[in-house]
């Protein structure tokens, strides 16, 4: 019996789709690694399982005795339906158990067909023996040719805690539909109480500086304030471009308001270790020797600090030798850290 089972497994592994089935089931039983993306999904399993159950009346109408070998499709069909139901219900351990049962059912079914001499090698028995590997590959074939877009059976291998699964699903949903996502307690894709982070955006600091200078240039010219900018190449911050532009507009506009005619506002952008620095220097009309805490508390100053904090950055106001410097530090984009 054991030698026959090994031979059946070897024959099944010789077929491409059979290799996929064996590989997925072996990974499930031994390492619980993720299934290959081209393997079956819940809808394919449901379709094949339903078709297998509907074949029972056909067997009865054909007056074929429903003995152990020919009852294999019914048992495997029930197993397929159970796996699909477990996948849809987000029960990975239950789906894994049913997958192990289906694998054992395949082996037992094929062994019974090959060793049962009572019915001889009739056409029905031979068809049942040939049907075993075909039925094993049926869900993969259905998915390949119908290209159904439902959750894959890779969910079977997801043995993470329920909260981690919901958090991952929420992050995926948020990244795809961030513009119209409205979570509710009924939304199965969002786990409340879990920090769901949107994918990090990237902003070009050099472009944002140029944008801000174009918008404040008329105001600077009217106040006779010179604008000088310097930015290193490829300075990328981990925030969206609109936020970066807004920060620089607030920085430069506030510096122009505080500068005297004939003074210069300097804007610099550069990379630091794991961060991006944006600095604006000006000469405000305040008494000599004042510190950063004595800078004019304009409404834009509080708004700037809040905007930077919302972007995950920090703001430093300092005063040295009559020159006011406002430094904004943002996280560096992951693209530069690679």
* Strand order in space, largest sheet: 2-4-5-7-6
| DSSP, total strands | 7
The residue ranges in which pLDDT falls below 50 over 5 or more consecutive positions are 15-40, 148-166, 173-199, 286-294
How many separate structural domains? 3
H/E element string?
HHHHHHHEHEEHEEHEEH
What fraction strand? 5-15%
- Report how far the terminal alpha carbons are from each other: 55 Å
Can you lay out the helices and strands and say which pair or pack?
Layout (H helix, E strand, L loop, with lengths): L1 H12 L2 H15 L11 H20 L10 H17 L3 H24 L7 H24 L15 H15 L26 E2 H18 L3 E6 L4 E2 L3 H18 L5 E9 L2 E8 L16 H12 L3 E7 L2 E9 L2 H4 L1
Parallel strand pairs: 2-4
Antiparallel strand pairs: 1-3, 4-5, 5-7, 6-7
Helix pairs in contact: 1-5, 2-5, 2-6, 3-4, 3-6, 4-5, 5-6, 8-9, 9-10
Describe the structure.
- The chain has 338 residues and is an alpha+beta fold.
- The strands form two sheets. A five-stranded mixed beta sheet has the order 2-4-5-7-6.
- A hairpin with a 2-residue loop joins strand 6 (314-320) and strand 7 (323-331).
- The protein has three domains: 2-159, no CATH class; 161-199, no CATH class; 203-337, Histidine kinase-like ATPase, C-terminal domain (Heat Shock Protein 90, 2-Layer Sandwich), CATH 3.30.565.
- The protein is rod-shaped.
- Residues 15-40, 148-166, 173-199 and 286-294 have low confidence and may be disordered.
- It has helices at residues 2-13, 16-30, 42-61, 72-88, 92-115, 123-146, 162-176, 205-222, 241-258, 299-310, 334-337; strands at 203-204, 226-231, 236-237, 264-272, 275-282, 314-320, 323-331.
